[in-house]
From TrEMBL:
Keywords: Glycosyltransferase, Membrane, Transferase, Transmembrane, Transmembrane helix. GO terms for molecular function: UDP-glycosyltransferase activity. It comes from Colletotrichum gloeosporioides (Anthracnose fungus). Coiled coil: none annotated. The chain crosses the membrane at residues 182-203. This is Glycosyltransferase sdnJ. SUPFAM superfamilies: UDP-Glycosyltransferase/glycogen phosphorylase.
Length: 470
């Protein structure tokens, strides 16, 4: 019997990137049970990998479990330290640590760890996270057979290759609040923002020192985000998006493969949390989840609560027969600890400790308030739920713009992001839930959800491409 082919997945431990790797692992276990799957990342993701492996074995008993390899080093979020990104040209300076958050020493430690894991596994094919620089660097340096798996969009990786310098004038620069399409009178300021971005990326002394240190100590040339500004025709990239849900582009590189949204197969809520299912079944629900890497300060929690009150008041004035309720995933600190008391501030709250779930079979979630992360955006689109987007990172502005462009939601805070005020948030919630265009937004959301279903599961598409290339 010939030995099993080995598939190695290299990803960050942050769920925004890691979820599509876990989803693809599940699909790969069903597509070809004879593929041996290895996943390397940092310790925080170990439990999720174990859960994904157990779920995969339950669904596909003939498959092998996922073997986890812990990467000992500095993970992305620890290096980044979560800087706030104000909505002006200054936000572009903060894009620098985001694109190269590591010191030279941290980069070398991470690169050596990736080298160790690759040498131990000896994979037939390696799938690499496009945002984790040490993995990109070592995959290229070691000349292994590799591909990219990315939750990002065609615009993110194909933009520099678009004709007529569209990078400057057609698409909003990252981290800006400019709309899409960009009005003629705002094109000059967008061009200026892009020049700022290029300047900061090229003359980033921190990144240059880190690159030089890595080359000196390992002999490897760093593969960072600047590399994507040049065509990579021989490097296949699996993207978790379909052109139907993205900004239009004129040139679609052949090496970029559109898989469609890649979602983890998580059980329906009534299977994993009957109490939460019963609570959701009581009536229409607004679901607020601003991501795993962001937290809500007390002043912003007050703004959110006041906005919710505005929505509920408007709901009652519309003489709605059913009671409106809000499911709010309130994260007060980076480590999940309680930082301020919300129970003695006039709030009427119930504690609902919900499990991770995929399908709200009650159909009662009528609006998703999210931070514009790829997973949150696709989850709402997947279920046909209108969105209200509060972007908190420079790269999440893109999905806020996309929600408005597709007609499935509202960007709350283009003038104040990443912060928000009760009045503007309350107005956006009112527009999406009970406003004059609420029905139109709901119908469009349902239409795109049906279209996504017809295109098939993105994780299965990705798995088929992997099997074909391994």
């Amino acid at each position: 019997m010939s030995p099993k082919r080995k598939m190695l997945m290299l990803t960050k431990s942050e769920y925004g990137q890691a979820n599509i790797f876990l989803a693809t692992c599940h699909a790969l276990m069903g597509t070809d049970p004879d593929v041996e799957i290895h996943l390397a990342s940092f310790a925080p993701i170990r439990t999720a990998v174990t859960a994904a492996s157990e779920a995969g074995i339950k669904a596909h008993p003939n498959a092998s479990s996922i073997e986890f390899h812990e990467t000992r080093g500095t993970h992305y979020f620890k290096a980044l330290l979560s800087p706030e990104l104000p909505n002006n040209a200054h936000c572009l300076t903060n894009h620098r640590p985001g694109s190269m958050p590591y010191t030279g020493l941290e980069m070398v430690e991470n690169c050596n760890e990736i080298r160790r894991i690759i040498e131990e596994v000896e994979p037939d094919l390696t799938l690499v996270d496009d945002m984790f620089i040490p993995e990109l660097t070592m995959a290229r340096h070691m000349r292994i057979k590799w591909m990219i798996l990315s939750p990002n969009t065609l615009k993110d990786l194909a933009l520099p290759q678009q004709p007529r310098a569209a990078f400057f004038w057609k698409y909003p620069c990252v981290g800006t609040a400019l709309p899409f399409p960009i009005p003629w009178h705002l094109i000059p300021i967008n061009v200026l923002y892009v020049f700022f971005l290029i300047f900061f990326m090229i003359f980033n002394s921190h990144a240059r020192r880190a690159r030089a240190y890595v080359t000196e100590k390992t002999g490897a040339m760093v593969f960072d985000q600047q590399e994507f500004s040049n065509p990579q025709p021989t490097l296949k990239m699996l993207m978790a998006i379909s052109p139907e849900f993205d900004f239009p582009v004129d040139l679609k590189p052949e090496n970029i493969i559109h898989c469609g949204p890649i979602m983890r197969p998580v059980p329906a809520v009534e299977e994993v949390d009957p109490k939460l299912h019963t609570w959701l079944a009581r009536g229409p629900t607004v679901f607020i989840n601003l991501g795993t890497l962001s937290w809500t300060t007390e002043d912003q929690a007050v703004e959110m609560a006041q906005a919710i009150r505005l929505l509920i008041t408007g709901w009652r004035e519309k003489n709605r027969d059913r009671r409106l309720q809000v499911l709010w995933k309130l994260k007060q600190t980076t480590d999940g600890h309680v930082d301020y008391d919300v129970y003695n501030k006039g709030c009427r709250l119930e504690i609902i400790l919900g499990s991770e779930f995929d399908n709200d079979t009650t159909g009662n979630i009528i609006c998703s308030v999210n931070h514009g992360g790829a997973n949150s955006f696709w989850e709402a689109l997947w279920t046909g739920v209108p969105q209200v987007v509060l972007p908190v990172w420079a790269d999440t502005y893109d999905f806020a713009q996309r929600a408005e462009y597709l007609g499935i939601g509202k960007w709350v805070s283009p003038n104040t992001a990443p912060r928000y005020r009760a009045k503007e948030l309350g107005d956006a919630l009112t527009q999406v839930v009970i406003g004059h265009n609420a029905r139109k937004v709901q119908l469009k959301s349902n239409e795109l959800a049906k279209q996504r279903l017809q295109l098939g599961e993105g994780r299965d598409v990705a798995a088929r491409h992997i099997v074909e290339n391994i």
